[in-house]
Design goal:
Layout: E1 2-13, E2 26-36, H1 39-44, H2 53-66, H3 72-84, E3 91-99, E4 107-115
Antiparallel strand pairs: 1-2, 2-3, 3-4
């Protein structure tokens, strides 16, 4: 299956369980891999038959910046659902990271994999 990769999409939002995290916007880094059939778009040299990654990226960024989730796990699940609503996306891998969240590491995050059901 073909892939569309959105790398290091970065926004600022409320995320975390600590009191200070509920009032201070933090950097949230998202990496998304969309699995879909891109052969039609490749043959036609047109976006017809391809998920619009600009539209998807805007939706993900908007959600991350307004959702105010407590955990990166919940945010990742939200983002996966948004991706799977896009026509043509059959599977998605979502990685959500909080840079600087853990001392002595560059970031902490989760990665989930979800598939379209139906």
């Amino acid at each position: 299956m073909d892939k569309i990769i959105i790398k290091d999409l970065t926004g600022r939002g409320i995320i975390g369980i600590n009191e200070w995290e509920r009032t201070v916007r933090q950097e949230i880094v998202m990496n998304i891999t969309l699995f879909c059939d891109l052969s039609r778009a490749a043959k036609s040299d047109s976006l017809d038959g391809s998920p619009n990654y600009r539209t998807i990226a805007k939706a993900l960024l908007s959600h991350a910046e307004r959702s105010e989730r407590f955990t990166v796990e919940a945010l990742a699940e939200d983002l996966a659902a948004i991706c799977l609503c896009e026509e043509g996306v059959e599977k998605v891998i979502v990685r959500v990271e909080k840079p600087g969240a853990l001392r002595f590491s560059s970031s902490v995050g989760v990665e989930i994999e979800r598939e379209r059901t139906s």
